[in-house]
Amino acid sequence: MSKENKKAGSGEKKGTLGRWFSRLFFPNKEMDIYAEEALQSPARMVAKSFFSKPLAVISLVLLILIMLFVFIAPSFVVLDLGEQDSTLVNVSPGYSMMDYPDELEKEGIADISVGSNFSAGVDVNGNVYVWGKTKVSRVIDVADVPKEVQKAKITQIAAGFDHIVAVDDKGTVYCWGNARLGQTKLPQELSENNRFHNFKITKVFASHQFSAALTDDNRLLLWGNANFADIGMDKELYDGHVVDAALTDTAYVILTDEGAVVYSGDKATSLLSTGIPEGAKSGVVSIAATANSVAALKSDGTILTWGVTTRGEGSLPAFSAKPIKIEGGRYHYTVVMEDGNVASWGHNRYKQISVPGELTNDSVDVKNIYTGYYQNYAVDNNGEIHAWGLKGFLLGTDDLGRDIFARLVNGGKMTMTIGALSVVISTIIGILLGGIAGYFGGFLDMAIMRVAEVVSSMPFIPFAMILSAVLGSRVSVEQRMYIIMVILGLLSWPGLCRQVRAQMFAQREMEYVTAAKTIGVKENKIIFKHIIPNVMSVVLVSITLSFGTSMLTESTLSYLGFGIPAPTPTWGNMLSNANNSVIIQNFWWNWVFVGLIFGLSCVCINLIGDGLRDALDPKSNER
After folding, report:
1. What is the maximal distance between C-alpha atoms in the chain?
2. Tell me: the pLDDT tens digits for 504-547?
3. Can you list the positions of beta strands (E) in 64-208?
4. Which of 19, 132, 176, 273 could covalently link to 263 via disulfide, CB atoms 3.0 to 4.6 Å apart?
5. Coil vs helix vs strand at 75
């Protein structure tokens, strides 16, 4: 063999080995596109085609994240169907309720008072600070401190539900906030001679729709909505004997100079009046109140509670030392003890009794406490503030004071469950009837198609509304959910049925079907094992689009009031609750968040369906 031939043979051998090596470890570099298609399975080709579409992939990722969110988050976000609170209505999103100004702590704290969604404080120089969710109506903001208050040296302040009362070093009383119900309209004794009266205001109080002021000659002055609150008083009996007072939501009690707790209002049948313990009629040094209960602290450290204590207000914890001061929130109490430790008890929905560890283990010596509604502030000997309780709501609250985030999560689970299960039902029926009609044809085809036309002609929403009206309250929420799923499934199969039938007409004439018949394969296996897998492209696209449609239909029913009834949340009835021009214009968080996640889910489902359709359609994969 010549040298040239040997070299050629050697080169050919090396080239062959090189090609083998490249094909073994880098097949895509040597393999042309047709050879690649020959080696890839149809599933791999479909997946590659689908994942080559960025918009479809992004939509798939977003939909998976949304589904994980609504199906996993409810395990951690507790939904209380009975949750309602008039003091937490339409609170804007954010965790700013306890973001007190640093200047208040730096200048030195003279007083702090906790309102419904805001708090107010006074420093030692008489300056006023207001923080939290300070807008109490569409136009009223309690953070807009009147100019005369800014110029005065305020000594004490009281925050109520929607207003603030303050008193300066000269005894002048100031009120601002919501004045619609008279809670800021000073009584005659103050309004006529506010700056020149011959008595001094020692303490002011603010509650839901009324206010009060205690004078240095032991008189209690009350003003506000007398139709809502029991603010009457026997002045002849108690004037000159009042040393302290505690205001509930609708009434008040007083502490007399004899150490007795007295209900001095007009409604003598009130639990606050009839339930006063014998021990609270003497030896009491301090009193506090929640929304519907009262607590009395005696000189020996004993605490007595009465009234409506269904939220744990009467379940006192073990104290590490003798309590010396007591304060009341909306449904809880907080005390500071002789050893400087703090304890809280009562309702803990918003962590208002979860006292920080440093305030319970002797590491911090607490000097004073300020409690109200759902927040607590403790001031230690160094003048530092320690706060705990309700910080706010991630997505705000609705018109009944319910947490929108908790309802959004749990409502999404309900909406997506109904959509998914109804699609499963309609898919099973559509594939079964469409496969039979398309394969056998003839009488079966005609009968199934006539049934499909009858079902298609039924107006679903009016039909579901009539059924809902007939059922009324005779079924539970769970039963109503199952009924909606079944109805959605039973009435939404004709479209898929027609698509499968059309594909079956084409597929049944193929060679592989003829071969299956020749070797004796049963008809049911030919339909469901051989033909149906070849028409799954149509089925998958239809399933994705039907999922979004079913979610929209359920939400439409709930929006119209004929779906899942409140208080059980769905995305539809959450949007229904926001069907109000006032809410839409002023409380945008009631509908924006649920609308965004619902719209995003439906758009993602449609884009995934489009991506699957293109990936499964060979004609769309142009090379």
Report:
1. 136
2. 888 888 888 888 888 888 878 887 777 877 777 778 777 877 88
3. 109-114, 118-123, 128-132, 154-159, 163-168, 173-177, 201-206
4. 273
5. helix
- Beta strands in 128-183, from DSSP E residues, in sequence order: 128-132, 154-159, 163-168, 173-177
With CA atoms as reference, report the closest residue to 606 among 566, 547, 534.
547
pLDDT digits (tens, 9 = 90+) for 345-382: 999 999 999 999 999 888 889 999 999 999 999 999 99
What residue type is 33 in one-letter code? I
List the structure tokens of 544: 């994705």
State the burial class of residue 187 (Cβ atoms within 10 Å of its Cβ: 0-12, 13-18, 19+).
middle
Determine phi and psi for 364, rounding to 5 degrees: -130, 135
3-state SS assignment for residue 43 = helix
d(CA 616, CA 613): 5
- C-beta pairs of 502-508 under 8 Å, 24+ apart in sequence: 502/438, 503/438, 503/534, 503/535, 503/538, 504/434, 504/435, 504/437, 504/438, 504/439, 504/531, 504/535, 505/438, 505/441, 507/438, 507/531, 507/534, 507/535, 508/438, 508/439
pLDDT at residue number 565:
76
How far are the Cα atoms of 89, 323, 347, 474 from residue 340, in angstroms, in the given order?
Answer: 36, 9, 23, 57
- Walk across the sheet containing 252-256 and list its strands: 242-247, 252-256, 261-262
Burial class of residue 279, CB neighbours in 10 A (0-12, 13-18, 19+): middle
What are the pLDDT digits (tens) for 565-617?
778 888 888 888 777 788 888 899 999 999 999 889 888 988 888 888 777 76
Within its chain, how far is the Cα of 378 from the centroid?
Answer: 29
Backbone angles phi, psi at 279, to 5 degrees: -65, -20
Burial profile 398-430: b = 16 or more Cβ within 10 angstroms, e = fewer: beebbbbbbbbbbbbbbbbbbbebbbebbbebb
- List all residues 6 or more positions away from 389 whose beta carbon is below 8 Å from its beta carbon: 98, 329, 350, 351, 352, 374, 375, 376
pLDDT attached to residue 475:
73
Interatomic CA distance for residues 343 and 378, integer angstroms: 11
Cβ atoms 129, 100 nearer than 8 A: yes
Q: Which two tokens stand for residue 43?
A: 């599933």
Q: Which of 170, 206, 216 has its CA nearest to residue 186?
A: 206
Total Cβ atoms within 10 A of residue 253: 26
Q: Which two tokens stand for residue 198?
A: 């011959």
CB 330 within 8 A of CB 390: no
SS3 104: helix
Asked if residue 176 lies in contact with residue 154, where contact means CB atoms within 8 angstroms, the answer is: no
Secondary element (H or E) of residue 504: helix 494-507
Q: Structure pTM?
A: 0.82
Closest CA to 116 of 296, 323, 375: 375
Length of the chain: 623
Angle at CA of residue 472, ends 466 and 476, nearest 5°: 120
Count CB-CB contacts under 10 A for residue 442: 8
My answer on whether omega of the bond before 567 falls inside 30° of 0, hence cis, is yes
